[in-house]
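Standup notes
- HV: blocked on the assembly model, inputs below
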Amino acid sequence: MSRKKIINIEIELLLRDASNVLSKVKDRPVQSLTFKVLLGVINLYILMGFLLYLLVKGSLVEGINTDFLDQGYLSILNTRATVVLVFLMILNISAYYNYGFKYLSTILFIYMLNSAIDIAILFSGFSQIAERPYFSVFQLSRPLFLICLIWIAIVHKDQIKDA
Amino acid sequence: MFKSLQLSKAFWIAISIAYSYCLFVLYVFLISPGDVFNLEIATQYYFAIKLTTVRLVFIVFALIAYPVILSRFLKYAKYVTVALTAWAFIMYIEDYFILYSMIEYPEGSSIDVVHLLRPIFIISLIWMCFELIFIAQPRE
């Protein structure tokens, strides 16, 4: 076996051991890059939704059919935006302490799915998609968000042995 | 098939309550939907029935799939139970605190019973969650 090949094997072994050591820092598993990206996407989606709600509430967005809002959508959006923001905080705390994250992401998935179904049933007849472009973009991108929530629950590592 | 799951009697009582409630809801809304002809709040009735129909489809699917998941995939049964409990609880909260101005359920004694028994159904599901998360172990 050549000297170069031996060195490569040694380096590989060292790196593998180092990754195991890193994953046991503070008795906590190190989450993957996919997990971090997905958590970032989830945070971004919810924060953008909350920003959209604040803009609509303050009448700072043009091109929205006000009849549609008067039908009760704004009051529903008001409650849901607050609930989801609180949920996001709890989810982030759970990710930081690595406790109950899978359960929380499952519950958030169910909440978002239920709210999407409710909105689709209750408000589909009031307005066309083109009359509420901002909400429509938000609603149409919901399936991607739901996929992110399922994906993050799958890639999350509960214990060091998963890492 | 279920004996190897090592679940307590309380769990089986809770699941029986949950299944009985779901079957009662199916019976009430499919067989005797109550007085739906009050024209003063026809729109709210319409939304409530529409929403209930979609929910009933999910309930039927869950009633069929849950025993299969519980018997074959106990590792995932706790996540499914948590999801179903969250869904039941979210629907309860939303109906009374968020969608109350949009929907109105038809009047009728059996529908009132459905609403009265809803907290018991949710408590049963919560008990099932605790049992599966903290007590039940997957079979070898």
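- HV (later): unblocked. Residues 66-97 of chain A form the longest helix (32 residues). The CA atoms of residues 149 and 156 of chain A lie 11 Å apart.
- Next: hand off to the docking folks.
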